[in-house]
Amino acid sequence: MKAPLLEVSHLVKHFESGGGLFRRGAPVAAVDDVSFSIREGETFGLVGESGSGKTTTGRCILRLIEPTSGSVRFRGEDVLAFSRRRMREARRHMQVVFQDPYSSLNPRMRARQIVEEPLIIHGLGNRTDRRERVAELFRLVGLDTAHLERYPHEFSGGQRQRIGLARALALNPSLLILDEPVSALDVSVQAQVINLLMDLQQQLRLTYLFIAHDLRLVEHICSQVAVMYLGKIVETGPAAALFAKPQHPYTRALLSAIPVSDPDAPKQRIVLDPDLVRRDAALREVGAGHWAAI
Amino acid sequence: MLEVSHLTTVFDLASGPAPAVDDVSFEVRPGETLGLVGESGSGKSVTALSIMRLVQPPGRISGGSIRFKGRELLALPEAEMREVRGAGIALIFQEPMTALNPVFRIGDQVAETMLAHGRVSRRDARARAVELLGAVRMPDPAARARDYPHQLSGGMRQRVLIAMAIACKPSLVIADEPTTALDVTIQAEILDLLREMKSAFNLSLLLITHDLGVVAETADRVAVMYAGRIVEHGPVREIFRDPKHPYTRGLLASRPGVARGQRLRAIDGTVPVLGALPAGCAFHPRCPDRFEPCNSAPPPEFAVGEGHGARCYLHDGHQAPAIRRPAERAAR
What we know:
The complex is a heterodimer. Chain A has nine helices and twelve strands. By secondary structure, chain A is α/β, with parallel strands linked by helices. The radius of gyration of chain A is 20 Å and the shape is globular. The model of chain A has no long low-confidence stretch (mean pLDDT 91). Chain B is α/β, with parallel strands linked by helices. Chain B is built from twelve helices and twelve strands. Chains A and B meet through helix 6, helix 7 and helix 9 of A and helix 8, helix 9, helix 10 and helix 11 of B.
């Protein structure tokens, strides 16, 4: 078995809530003792509803927010111990694509500049090299190089997400953190972007941390899945097993809440009884590689 | 109940009038749920605003008719139309945070809708508001009535909007993406609530959404919009079992979950923008089945089943190439 590319252990992030100017607020655990590992080349799905801590987890891995405690190992090295300079170097290998292609691209920069910027920041290549690389990236994500000088608003949502992807790929990363990459897109365009992500993964041997609330999509493209609820991973395992035999009451409620696009499908809604969720339950193995906090 | 015929709503752009809703006809029957499905820019929300006569400039209704319980809404004086809004037809918006006024208590906002129609005294309106909050399953409604919108979760705010919608006993509720901003477990609760309110208050429902799953679970009949036109409509089972328009087929085929780990069957291209619609059938540049007539004139509606119609030349007995059956398409 391959060694994990990314290993997150006992990650904790507290935010303060309810504090004021002179009074410290009570700490709220947005991420509460989260551990998982991702093997090279796989797509790991982190799912949960708003407030589950999935996005905060993604940001802690890149240290876009500093975690309170825990460790994040990338290729065996502890990322949280890195100096600023070393961290910047490490970010070449771990990139993020954000949810909203409308607000995540600088509206005053041309598409070419947006994709080129990481190359400039990391001092890679001369002008000519960079131009060539940007054009290559444009083609890679299926954009027309005739549109290099356009501004973000001149592109559709799907094309903007491709620009964000080209920028993330500029430095040849091995891990991409995809934070709800298609949820702002039209249904008919979502499938195109998902196909592109699947093609790129094969072509460039990428590893994905796919953060999403859309369980059908996660089921489709992820090999491993972790379900987050109120800051904790309540269930994790191979996607096939987890979707076929969900064990945690929250996972069951979540799966039963997805509208099924089949008018004849029996509707069996499972409503989560909060008393069934034991907050202090440890994950225990319920099947091969399948763990649930029950 | 509601009969929309040949409705056309245009936006006056610098380049000339652009139809956001183009010759749209459908009906909502008593007690039924009609799902109006479309992506962004399909014209589904403008259709809802047109029915309520709430289209703002540069948009304007340029033709067609909207009959509600036999009355022509497009001919009503504004004062009578105001009576129809709320008491006849109620609209539930997508974003519960912006649809509620942040500086008023929610109980007062529910009461306000009843007072606006001058039906009740202030005291009765307050009492009835608490009753309505109870009816939409708000826990401890008397206490919650004193809360401000920001004190409630998104799901609870959506319940308040539903309470406001049913306050004046409308016979038709138009819900525009009522669950889009919500988490999936909360969405399930709100959809259950809408179904429950529908039978308890004997409502007809026009449910506007981009989510095929929501439609499959909620609607009796479906109308699919693309670029301002209804391209297919029919009973929900037929639409999902045997879609006849290539756009509907594409939407259904592009859903994840058909074959895990495989590429999805995406629809090529992007949704056209208002004012730059392709000639002929607006879907033809993205259509895998296009043939000669598709780029010349917009196709009329062809009957393809009992109460099932599709605007696609494939179903024109005179010129459709009968050779292109689905099996052969799959082989291509």
